[in-house]
Design a protein that fits this description.
Elements: H1 3-18, E1 33-36, E2 51-56, H2 63-70, H3 73-78, E3 82-88, H4 91-100, E4 105-108, H5 110-118, E5 125-134, E6 136-140, E7 155-158, H6 164-175, E8 190-193, H7 199-205, E9 210-214, H8 217-223, E10 227-231, E11 242-249, H9 250-255, H10 257-276, H11 278-293, H12 299-307, E12 309-311, H13 317-329, H14 345-353
Parallel strand pairs: 2-3, 2-4, 7-8, 7-9
Antiparallel strand pairs: 1-3, 4-11, 5-11, 5-12, 6-9, 6-10
Helix pairs in contact: 2-10, 2-11, 4-5, 6-13, 8-12, 10-11, 10-14
């Protein structure tokens, strides 16, 4: 990558690390890193590693991990190999943990995955599967914003400079013909980077007029009287776009392919269980959130939020490439080299065993 690109990218990551990334939804409840070592390995044959360390954000867009952890579905596939879980509130901190060897596998959003891959010159991680699509909305104060044109001149929150939702909103602003400086957030629309923990309070106080945010923050704003002006899914082909991926360190993938395959098998079976038992799965996710944060989501928040998220094993690779292009167009990223970011061979092996069709890497897989 050219020096300019590296500078821009590292600057974005440094700012991202300095700001609290997306809580409740593309980050989450809980502490920066809340390690759960209480899981006891199930009976069965131990795989090539004694333990696999798994990271995820305690939020609904990471519900595959929440439910798989709560119901023991991931552990079941690992047999005698123990699953140890850590929770993170920010993409940069999870990437750092992966690069340092503190975790081996993680659920994470597309922007941190792109940044993590680019800043290690393609040597740090691979995306090995999908997890969720959708669950992102532009929610506004209906007294101030009644149509798209009314967004101009208003203050709209996003979770963090350069995060997935921030990039999407900047791209949407550009498509309206408006101009905003991506770094400062100043321009025809004021983009206010705000931790999702405080976005509802900022909305209630009038500090922001709306927010482009993931679930369940979007539904929390609606519960406070906000109106959904736009569902991001409506902007994408087939209304699908990646919001959560599964990543693995390349070192762990090389040394423990059987463990990686077991985690993927557990993820696939968890998603199937979620689809077959949506109410039980929603309750399981909420139970885990309560265990991690001390409180569960109320029905008027979790019910609409849950309906807007699609759980999928497909990483929707073509949409990740598009999201990277949006970051480039916004001036937040020099065009990254994403060739090799995917290794979907283990996932496709699992899907074949389940009688399912293979998923595609959009030409960005390992050669």
């Amino acid at each position: 990558m050219p020096a300019k690109g590296s500078t821009l990218l590292r600057r974005g990551i440094a700012v991202a690390a300095a700001l609290p990334l997306l809580t409740l939804a593309a980050c989450g409840y809980g502490s920066e890193k809340d390690e759960d070592t209480s899981k006891v390995a199930a009976e069965g044959k131990k795989l090539s590693a004694d333990t696999v360390r798994i990271g995820y954000f305690p939020n609904l867009t990471h519900a595959t991990a929440l439910v798989g952890d709560q119901e023991g579905l991931l552990q079941k596939e690992l047999g005698g190999t123990k699953a140890s879980y850590s929770q993170f509130n920010a993409g940069p901190s999870e990437i750092e943990a992966l690069n340092s060897g503190s975790i081996d596998i993680g659920w994470i959003g597309p922007s941190p995955a792109i940044n993590g891959y680019s800043t290690t010159d393609g040597k740090g991680l691979r995306i090995i599967g999908g997890s969720a699509s959708g669950g992102v909305k532009l929610v506004v104060n209906p007294a101030k914003i009644k149509s798209v044109k009314d967004v101009k001149g208003k203050k709209i929150a996003t979770p963090q400079l350069g995060n997935t939702q921030d990039v999407a909103f900047l791209n949407w602003i550009s498509e309206q013909g408006w101009k905003v400086d991506a770094q400062s957030g100043k321009g025809d629309v004021s983009v206010v980077r705000t931790d999702n923990k405080i976005t509802p309070d900022a909305y209630k106080s009038g500090s922001v007029d709306g927010a482009w945010v993931p679930e369940p923050t979007a539904s929390k704003l609606v519960a406070e009287g906000g109106k959904v002006l736009l569902d991001e899914a409506d902007l994408w082909p087939d209304k699908k776009f990646v919001i959560t991926n599964i990543i693995v360190s390349q070192k762990f993938l090389k040394e423990h392919p059987d463990v990686v395959e077991a985690v993927l098998r557990g993820s696939v079976k968890t998603n199937a269980w979620i689809d077959a038992n949506p109410d039980k799965a929603k309750a399981a996710a909420n139970t885990k959130l309560k265990a991690l944060s001390g409180k569960e989501l109320p029905a008027d928040v979790i019910d609409p939020a849950w309906k807007s998220i699609q759980f999928t094993d497909d990483p929707l690779a073509s949409t990740l490439n598009a999201e990277a292009e949006h970051a480039v167009q916004a001036g937040l990223l020099e065009k990254p080299k994403l060739d090799g970011i995917y290794d979907l061979a283990p996932l496709n092996k699992v899907l074949k065993a389940e009688g399912r069709s293979a998923v595609d890497d959009a030409g960005l897989g390992v050669k």
